[in-house]
User: Which sequence fits this backbone?
């Protein structure tokens, strides 16, 4: 291959920001404003500055003795909750109003992106609310002095530390939210990657946030190291794509790809390397190995964030690569189909088998989320066969997006229940869940709903999404088997391999019931280790019940149908 | 007992419910049938409410005193069902609403699905299973019986259940199950398809199991519950297969689709009457199980192990009527006048035969029973058999295009159902009152722990109660008279109609009908004997144990429903008969009311046909004179000296004393008596057959399940656990290994991509 | 001027060294350095592409990628420090409380 050096001769086209309406970026703007508020508001004080050469003191409001109204350490979390609520609401409105818009060449907003920014912001809202209790702040914290015993000294220090880092925590959450939302909206590969890095770097810190605990730092380190390697691989892949095409706009890459006669090594390796990076984000085997460690070392709200929003972000990026850039047009098989199919089978089987004997509930949920990633990858692989028409592809994509949407409800719901239990100081084994039904029947029944939904039991929404995925895969593979003879084997060997993915999903679901129901069994049949009721945690409790109810409502009845309709429109707008 | 008088104010909070129907009618402007869903939905929601609230406030005093452990809630919801039913009934009778024979309301679509045709292509039209309501004269009548009796029995239960210390703290379960049971019956009657009919039918099966086994710690009760459940289940399996065949024929189970034109099946194909015969026969087997007819009758007597209100519920209001309703629903298949299929006469004859056999058999077993509730149980079987015979005859007439005769036989059967339900509900309440008071008196005399062996249900321990419990005795007298068929009282009109129509069929058309005709005629006399015997053993003669001397009249919760039902049995039946109930119930609306009255009277006493007239008078003589006189010969006797009972029962008791007492010792030692005591050995026979056939097969299956299937599952489990441990070991905890694995994964992606595409 | 293909070749070598180093070394700081190598190899590619196509975007990408790398190192060192303060090691091999 030969390179020619060509310096830029003509003027580079630079878009001016003048003619761009910013209203398509409302959720992001809200989050940015929220970030500024978190920085400014807690620092408001009575500081004054003396005008030079005079005795006039002008109040500048920042610094000095803080006003009592903003002195409360709970303020950052409140700002963050308000911000995420507004962002969720705005995304929902944008979704319902079909707001679309383009900011050439990096941003595009349509129903798909609005839906995903709603998913991200809602997951972050849940994180903020549960962190209200997981990372408690306390107004009027005492300053330790010499007369304290060691125990009270420690607790006072902990309180002070917690108060101090409230701002950091919520700023990081807002950063992650900003990054995720922009990932969904970007139509430029480099933009996508930068935003992905923004979200990832924030999440590394969030995982390591409990730096006093031994495992917090370790989990953060592992997650960071493996994640950085993955993103370094990804960015290298991207640079190869740049060499291949000279342009990283997704549209341009798509055109170049479709005009390619045979697989260009730069393009092929580049896409393959990017798959590794996004595979790490979604938790696909064998790139998932750090995720269980990260989940179990992080606090439960953060683990929930990683399992839902971060995973959804990975899937968005992956869908851009797989379904937009590299999908062949005329019913051919995508070249990544077999690789993805095999990865998906390994992922779901690995996840389910590892979860079978996990004794740490968070690890169990981590492995279960790996398994769920496997199901969704299988669905994406089915689109790659090129057998389906536009409608059936849209149906499969609908199933995947629907799954990602409702996953926020029940997977995060399970993590929120774990948050409640973690606040009692027990987060490494199942004993915290023992006899939960007797201690707190409502929370236990919510957990029951979450577990059944994760396992995919009708009539819960987890069942609906899984059913749609399997249905879509089978639909695509239908008719590929040779019906010439009655013999089973001739049919079995001729049917498209994607059919066996559906079978794998079914078998894996059966296996997964074992460990989900074990949690239920522990909650309902074991004796509780303590008879104290769970902490009151009003808002967390309400939001858990809210999630449980929505899990049910999105599984059956009119609400599920309207959500499916919305998701279907989003999928259509994406393809 | 007077001190319970103040409990009625407990019902005052329910008074606003009376406004519900006027509110819906005049304020919201609803039509009565639009409100029909409330009949089912309200009890359905009450069931969990009582269960949950009862579980929470179990030991709470207010819950016990003010809410009667859920009884007040239950009666409120049943009251709503009753009032809506009455609203529909009034609309129907006054003709303000034009139910043109039936009303169908489609609520919502439940399931809709594609289905494969025989060539494995998908049929373009989707099948829809909806949820809806179907009301016509049959369902309305049975619905009224069910709601009315459920309401009264619930009322009765508050006097019966809540005063019994044995039910302490678990009455809320009783009321919850009671309401669910009632809901099952209402739903079954209102269902607009055989599918929903079957679903509610099964709910009733479940509730009968729960309620019969309410005293689950009694071995006999648990056994009886199991027996009732399994026996009816045998019928249900046949019923289900029958429904499959029906679905195959018509492509739907909806009444609307099927009854539109029963002679054309799915896609306009002509229906094979032979296939339909088998479908309907299987449905009939289901009805036989539910209504306790020969040969699936064995569960009914044992079901007496449940609390008495449950017996009343099963025997009068709900369960046994379900089978009758199912058979009554079959009319459109037989009605050759309106698209029915010819060639189903044999099925009608089978139904009549089963009815005749059961009637005779049950009556003869009832001769020797000493348990007051068992006598009533066998009497239920026998009377239901009358109705089956009547329905069989009606179906036969329909199928041979004797439309007028068919209408009369059908109307008579339905009217008998009504009369029997009212009388039997009342009889069970009365017997419950007797048992309750005898039991209390016994508890009063003997401490619980003194081991005094005493059965409060055994009539041999009673006698002479007429002076102690005059209201109960009067009520029971009217009930017995209605069952016996004393002229001018309820059951007479309908029973006479059934017998006369059966004989008419036998004499004029079908010699085979002689068999059921003779059997039910004989049974009429036997009914007179055993019902009189029961009454006399309980109320007449001198007390047969010291307990009886301490018995009082019942509590008010028990008394009121008794009085209401007595009035309906004594007068209501007469009035209804005069209004031409038989014509009305058979939907034979081409007569004027006056015509109906004349026809009814003429039919009962002076038919034109000499044979029929002869049969009518023979029936009257047999049942009204010979049966009771024979009973008086054996069991009659005056009260103890110095005790007097109110008229007219005092007169009856004295009259029975005139016939003197005949020694029956010798008679009771005969072989026939022993066989009857053992219920004609049906239970033994069934047990023998089951132990020889099903049990060995079942134990073989159990072995297979334990070793092969469980073994495989266990193997899979242990292997998966091993695999799981292996898989988890890969997560070593070292980030270096993770990166290595990722690198390996990266390389394998390349291998897969290039390997496949090269 | 150097032919861009040489630059790409150098990038491949750097990338290989970096990737091997990440799972060869125990010391987290060294691993961090290896990650930097990988990122820089990507930067080299961007530069080569920019030269080849005469496209200014490539240079911009490089600049931003360097910024990302800097942020990554900053965060990485902070996280490593928090691990060191509790476990007193920065060896990726030894820090394995969380496993299986």
Assistant:
């Amino acid at each position: 291959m030969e390179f020619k050096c060509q310096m830029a001769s003509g003027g580079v086209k630079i878009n001016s920001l003048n003619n761009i309406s910013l209203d398509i970026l409302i959720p992001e703007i809200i989050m940015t404003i929220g970030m500024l508020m978190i920085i400014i508001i807690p620092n408001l004080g009575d500081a004054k500055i003396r005008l030079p050469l005079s005795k006039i003191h002008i109040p500048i409001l920042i610094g000095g003795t803080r006003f009592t109204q903003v002195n409360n350490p709970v303020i950052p979390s409140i700002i963050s909750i308000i911000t995420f609520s507004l962002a969720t609401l705005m995304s929902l409105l944008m979704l319902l109003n079909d707001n679309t818009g383009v900011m050439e060449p990096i941003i595009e907003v349509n129903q798909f992106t609005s839906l995903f920014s709603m998913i991200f912001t809602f997951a972050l809202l849940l994180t903020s609310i549960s962190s209200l209790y997981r990372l408690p702040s306390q107004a009027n914290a005492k300053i330790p002095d010499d007369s304290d015993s060691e125990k009270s000294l420690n607790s006072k220090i902990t309180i002070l530390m917690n108060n101090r880092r409230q701002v950091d925590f919520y700023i990081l959450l807002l950063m992650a939210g900003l990054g995720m939302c922009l990932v969904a909206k970007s139509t430029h590969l480099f933009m996508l990657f930068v935003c992905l890095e923004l979200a990832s770097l924030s999440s590394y810190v969030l995982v390591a946030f409990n730096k006093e605990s031994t495992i917090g730092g370790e989990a953060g380190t592992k997650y960071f190291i493996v994640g950085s390697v993955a993103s370094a691989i990804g960015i290298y892949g991207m640079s190869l794509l740049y060499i291949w095409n000279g342009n990283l706009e997704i549209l341009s890459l798509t055109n170049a790809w479709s005009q390619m006669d045979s697989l260009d090594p730069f393009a092929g390796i580049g896409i393959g390397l990017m798959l590794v990076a996004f595979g790490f984000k979604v938790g696909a085997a064998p790139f998932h190995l750090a995720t269980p460690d990260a989940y179990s070392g992080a606090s439960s709200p953060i683990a929930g964030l990683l399992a839902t929003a971060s995973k959804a972000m990975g899937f968005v990026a992956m869908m851009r690569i797989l379904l937009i850039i590299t999908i062949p047009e005329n019913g051919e098989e995508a070249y990544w189909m077999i690789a993805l199919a095999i990865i998906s089978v390994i992922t779901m089987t690995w996840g389910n088998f590892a979860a079978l004997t996990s004794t740490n509930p968070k690890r169990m949920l981590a492995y279960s989320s790996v398994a769920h990633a496997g199901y969704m990858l299988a669905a994406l692989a089915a689109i790659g066969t090129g057998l389906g028409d536009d409608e059936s592809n849209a149906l499969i994509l609908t199933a995947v997006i629907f799954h990602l949407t409702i996953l926020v409800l029940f997977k995060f719901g399970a993590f929120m229940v774990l948050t409640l239990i973690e606040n009692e100081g027990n987060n490494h084994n199942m004993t915290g869940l023992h006899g939960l039904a007797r201690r707190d029947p409502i929370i236990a029944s919510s957990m029951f709903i979450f577990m059944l939904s994760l396992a995919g039991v009708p009539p819960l929404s987890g069942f609906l999404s899984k059913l749609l995925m399997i249905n879509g895969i089978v639909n695509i593979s239908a008719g590929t088997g040779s019906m010439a003879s009655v013999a089973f084997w001739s049919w079995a060997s001729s049917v498209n391999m994607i059919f066996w993915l559906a079978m794998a999903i079914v078998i894996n679901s059966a296996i997964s019931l074992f460990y989900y129901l074990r949690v239920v069994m522990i909650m309902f049949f074991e004796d509780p280790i303590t008879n104290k009721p769970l902490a009151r945690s009003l808002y967390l409790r309400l939001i858990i019940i809210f999630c449980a109810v929505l899990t049910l409502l999105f599984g059956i009845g009119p609400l599920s149908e309207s959500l499916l309709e919305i998701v279907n429109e989003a999928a259509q707008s994406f393809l | 007992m007077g001190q319970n008088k103040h409990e009625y104010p407990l019902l005052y909070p329910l008074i606003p419910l009376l406004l519900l129907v006027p509110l819906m009618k005049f304020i919201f402007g609803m039509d009565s049938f639009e409100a029909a869903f409330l009949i089912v939905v309200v009890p359905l929601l009450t069931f969990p409410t009582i269960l949950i609230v009862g579980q929470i406030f179990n030991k709470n005093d207010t819950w016990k005193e003010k809410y009667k452990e859920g009884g007040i809630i239950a009666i409120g919801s049943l009251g709503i069902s009753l009032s809506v039913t009455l609203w529909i009934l009034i609309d129907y009778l006054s003709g303000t609403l034009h139910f043109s024979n039936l009303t169908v309301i489609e609520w919502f679509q439940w399931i809709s699905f594609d289905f494969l045709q025989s060539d494995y292509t998908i049929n373009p039209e989707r099948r829809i299973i909806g949820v809806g309501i179907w009301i016509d004269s049959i369902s309305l009548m049975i619905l009224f019986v069910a709601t009315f009796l459920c309401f009264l029995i619930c009322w009765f239960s508050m006097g019966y259940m809540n005063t019994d210390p044995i039910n302490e703290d678990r009455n809320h379960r009783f009321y919850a199950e009671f309401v669910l049971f009632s809901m099952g019956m209402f739903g079954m009657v209102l269902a607009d398809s055989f599918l929903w009919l079957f679903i509610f039918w099964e709910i009733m099966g479940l509730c009968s199991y729960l309620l019969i086994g309410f005293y689950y710690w009694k071995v006999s009760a648990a056994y009886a519950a199991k027996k009732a459940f399994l026996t009816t289940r045998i019928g249900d399996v046949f019923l289900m297969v029958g429904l499959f065949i029906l679905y195959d024929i018509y492509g739907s189970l909806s009444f609307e689709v099927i009854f539109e034109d029963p002679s054309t099946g799915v896609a306009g194909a002509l229906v094979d009457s032979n296939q339909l015969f088998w479908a309907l026969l299987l449905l009939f087997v289901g009805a036989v199980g539910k209504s306790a007819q020969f040969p699936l009758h064995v569960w009914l007597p044992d079901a007496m192990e449940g609390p008495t209100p449950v017996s009343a519920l099963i025997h009068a209001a709900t369960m046994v009527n379900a089978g009758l309703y199912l058979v009554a629903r079959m009319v459109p298949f037989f009605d050759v006048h309106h698209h029915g299929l010819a060639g189903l006469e044999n099925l009608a004859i089978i139904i009549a035969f089963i009815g005749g056999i059961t009637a005779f058999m049950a009556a003869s077993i009832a001769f020797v029973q000493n348990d007051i509730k068992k006598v009533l149980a066998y009497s239920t079987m026998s009377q239901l058999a009358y109705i089956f015979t009547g329905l069989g005859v009606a179906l036969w007439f329909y199928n041979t295009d004797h439309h007028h005769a068919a209408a009369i036989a059908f109307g008579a059967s339905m009217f008998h159902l009504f009369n029997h339900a009212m009388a039997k509900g009342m009889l069970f309440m009365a017997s419950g009152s007797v048992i309750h008071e005898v039991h209390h008196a016994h508890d009063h005399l003997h401490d619980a722990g003194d081991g005094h062996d005493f059965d409060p249900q055994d009539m041999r321990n009673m006698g002479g109660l007429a002076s102690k419990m005059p209201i109960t005795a009067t009520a029971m007298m009217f009930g017995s008279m209605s069952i016996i068929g004393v002229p001018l009282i309820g059951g007479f009109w309908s029973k006479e109609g059934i017998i006369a129509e059966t004989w008419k069929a036998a004499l004029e058309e079908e010699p085979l009908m002689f068999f059921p005709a003779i059997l039910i005629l004989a049974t009429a006399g036997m009914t007179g004997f055993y019902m009189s015997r029961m009454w006399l053993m309980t109320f007449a003669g001198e007390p047969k144990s010291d307990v009886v001397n301490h018995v009082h009249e019942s509590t008010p919760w028990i008394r009121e429903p008794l009085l209401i039902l007595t009035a309906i049995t004594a007068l209501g039946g007469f009035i209804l008969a005069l209004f031409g109930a038989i014509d009305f119930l058979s939907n034979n609306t081409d007569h004027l009311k006056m015509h109906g009255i004349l026809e009814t009277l003429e039919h009962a006493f002076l038919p034109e046909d000499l044979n029929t007239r002869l049969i009518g008078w023979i029936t009257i003589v047999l049942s009204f004179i010979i049966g009771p006189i024979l009973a008086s010969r054996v069991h009659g006797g005056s009260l103890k000296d110095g005790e007097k009972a109110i008229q007219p029962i005092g007169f009856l008791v004295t009259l029975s004393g005139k016939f003197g007492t005949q020694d029956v010792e010798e008679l009771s030692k005969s072989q026939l008596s022993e066989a009857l005591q053992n219920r004609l050995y049906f239970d033994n026979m069934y047990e023998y057959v089951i132990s020889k056939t099903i049990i060995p097969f079942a134990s073989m299956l159990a072995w297979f399940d334990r070793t092969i299937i469980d073994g495989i599952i266990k193997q899979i489990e242990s292997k998966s656990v091993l695999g799981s441990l292996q898989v988890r070991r890969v997560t070593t905890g070292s980030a270096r290994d993770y990166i290595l694995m990722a690198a390996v994964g990266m390389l394998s992606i390349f291998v897969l991509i290039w390997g496949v595409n090269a | 001027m150097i032919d861009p293909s040489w630059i790409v070749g150098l990038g491949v070598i750097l990338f290989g060294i970096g990737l091997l180093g990440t799972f060869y070394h125990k010391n987290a700081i060294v691993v961090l350095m290896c990650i930097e190598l990988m990122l820089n190899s990507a930067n080299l590619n961007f530069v080569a592409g920019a030269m080849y196509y005469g496209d200014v975007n490539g240079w911009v990408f490089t600049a931003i990628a360097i910024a990302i790398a800097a942020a990554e190192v900053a965060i990485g060192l902070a996280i490593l420090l928090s691990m060191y303060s509790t476990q007193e090691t920065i060896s990726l091999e030894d820090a394995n409380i969380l496993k299986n």
Observations:
- Residues 354 and 367 of chain A are 6 Å apart (CA to CA).
- Chain A has 20 helices and four strands.
- The longest strand of chain A covers residues 48-50.
- The longest helix of chain A spans residues 150-185.
